[in-house]
Amino acid sequence: MKARVEIMLKQGVLDPQGEAVRHALSALGFDGVGGVRQGKLIELELEDGLADPEALVREMCERLLANTVIESYRIEIPGQEGRA
């Protein structure tokens, strides 16, 4: 089973990479872009049959994948929606 983790800087944290992309878009003639936030997407291949895959991925995020001081994350595990 696959898990996807989307990691973004929290609101209020400066995003120099996003600003560089916004500036480059403007220089290329793409007007109307007021702001850009850049993040990370991590895909994990998990073994089938895990008791609580979301809890496992959450622990991975808290311990390694995300810097929770300045980043937030969202976990998506297709087929796990509505699972207790």
Could you provide a short overview of the structure?
The chain is of the alpha+beta class and 84 residues long.
Q: Keyphrases for this structure?
A:
84 residues; alpha+beta; Mth169, Chain: A; 3-stranded antiparallel sheet; 3 strands; 25% strand; elongated; ATP binding; EC 6.3.5.3
Q: SS-based structural class?
A: alpha+beta
CATH superfamily: Phosphoribosylformylglycinamidine synthase subunit PurS
The unreliable regions are none
Number of helices: 2
CATH class: Alpha Beta
Mean pLDDT equals 94
Strand order of the largest sheet: 2-1-3
Question: What percentage of amino acids are in beta strands?
Answer: 25-35%
Distance between the termini: 17 Å
Q: How large is the radius of gyration?
A: 16 Å
User: How many distinct beta strands?
Assistant: 3
CATH topology: Mth169, Chain: A
Structural write-up:
- By secondary structure, the chain is of the alpha+beta class.
- The protein has a single domain (2-76), classed as 2-Layer Sandwich (Mth169, Chain: A), CATH 3.30.1280.10.
- The protein is built from 2 helices and 3 strands.
- The chain is elongated and about 50 Å long.
- The mean pLDDT is 94.
- Belongs to the PurS family.
- Its EC number is 6.3.5.3.
- Part of the FGAM synthase complex composed of 1 PurL, 1 PurQ and 2 PurS subunits.
- It catalyses: N(2)-formyl-N(1)-(5-phospho-beta-D-ribosyl)glycinamide + L-glutamine + ATP + H2O = 2-formamido-N(1)-(5-O-phospho-beta-D-ribosyl)acetamidine + L-glutamate + ADP + phosphate + H(+).
